[in-house]
Amino acid sequence: MKIETDQGIYGLGDATLNGRELAVESYLAEHVLPCLIGRDPFQTEDIWQYLYRGAYWRGGPVTMTAIGAVDVALWDIKGKALNTPVYHLLGGSSREGVLVYTHANGADISETLDSVRKHIDEGYLAVRAQSGVPGVASSYGVSKSGKPYEPAQRGLPSESLWSTEKYLNFVPTLFEKLRVELGPEVRLLHDCHHRLTPIEGARLGKSLEPYHLFWMEDPCPAELQEGFELIRQHTTTPIATGEIFNTVWDAHDLIRNQWIDYIRMAIVHGGGITHAKKTADFAALYHVRTGFHGATDLSPVSMAAALHVGMAIHNFGIQEHMPHSALTNEVFPHGYSFVNGYMHPGDGAGLGVNIDEVLAAKHPYQRAYLPIARKLDGTLTDW
Ligand code: EZ4
Ligand code: CO
Prior knowledge:
Elements: E1 2-4, E2 10-12, H1 21-36, H2 44-52, H3 61-81, H4 86-89, E3 98-106, H5 109-122, E4 126-131, E5 159-162, H6 164-182, E6 187-191, H7 198-208, E7 215-217, H8 227-234, E8 239-241, H9 252-256, E9 262-263, H10 272-284, E10 289-290, H11 300-312, E11 319-320, H12 326-331, E12 337-339, E13 342-344, H13 357-361, E14 372-375, E15 380-381
Parallel strand pairs: 3-4, 3-11, 4-6, 5-14, 6-7, 7-8, 8-9, 9-10
Antiparallel strand pairs: 1-2, 3-13, 12-13, 14-15
Helix pairs in contact: 1-3, 2-3, 3-10, 5-6, 6-7, 7-8
The structure holds (2S,3R,4R)-2,3,4,5-tetrahydroxy-N-oxo-pentanamide and cobalt (II) ion.
Residues 18, 151, 191, 193, 243, 295, 297, 370 line the site of (2S,3R,4R)-2,3,4,5-tetrahydroxy-N-oxo-pentanamide.
C-alpha cells in the first residue's frame, strides 16, 4: 500500500493477510483511506488511535492489518521527510545487526540435515528445522519437490492429514541427529504450528531439552493463554508464540506471567510499528524478547519494518527471514542486506524499500488459500 502526501513524499505499507487479502483491501479502501485525506502524516500516534478507537469496532486481523499498513507507511514518510532511517526514530541502533533465522526442511531426517547444512554454509547462525514425519502425508513446513516452501495455493484449501502421535515420537529423533551432526553452536528452532495440546507441548519441550533448542514455536493455540502455564511448568525449552496475534492484549497474560520467552506478532498484523514498539516495551519488563514473524507471505516492506524495530529495541531476540523470490525482490527494490547471519535495514531514508508498480501490475492478484488439516479419522484440526 502506498500513501502519498502533498509534499511529494510517499510511504509504503504492507496490507497482506495471507488467504484473506481482499478483506483488508476493502477495509482500507472503503473505510480507512477516506479518513486520512488532509491529515498530518507525522501524527503516527494520533492516527493510530483514530483508526483503532475511532472505529468503535476494534481488533482482529483485518482491522489490525489495515491499521498496520497505514502506520508503517506513515513511519516511512516520517523517515523520508526527516531524511533518516526509521530505526533512528525508534531509539537508534542498539546493535550492529539483526540476528536472523531461516527455514530448513526436508522429506526426512537426512534431507532436513542437508538443508540445515546448506543454510549454515550460506552464513546463517540460526535455522528452523521442519521434516516430513513418517506416516504423515504432508507435514507443516515441508516443501514439495525442492521448491521454496509456500503454503498458500490456488483453488480451494488443500487438505493435509495429521497425526500428533507419530509427530511426537519422531521430532526428538530429528533433533538428536541434528545436534550430533552439527554440534552445539548452531541455533536450532522448531515450529509446532499450533498442533498440540498444552500437555503434548510439555512432552515435546521436555523431550527436546537435551538438544537445547533456541525455541519451540506455537506448541498449541494461544486463545487460552493459561494453557502455556502448563507447558512452562514442565520444560526449560524456550517458547515462542504470537504470529497470529493482533494486539498486545492477545499476549497480555503470556507476557506478564512469563509463560513465553519470545513474542512473534507480525509488525503489520499487529497494528504496525507504533504498536509493535509498545508491545516490545511491555514484553521487556518481563524478560520476553521479540521474534517478529517474517514469512514470505509478508512483503519486503514488512521485512524492512521488522529490521528497523529490531535494530532499535533493547529486548530484540531474533528475526525470522525467509528470503523472497527474485521476482518479489524486483518488485520491491530494497536497501536491507544479509551478512554472516545478521541483517541490516540499510541507512536510506525511511524504510529503505521502494516499489516497481509497473512490474507489480503485470502480476494481478489471484485468490489463494492456506491449507487445512485433518486428523487421521477426519476430524478438523489446527493447520
Ligand atoms: O505458516 O506465514 O513461522 N512461520 C510460519 C509461517 C506461516 C505462514 C502463514 O501464512 O508459521 O510459515
Ligand atoms: Co510459525
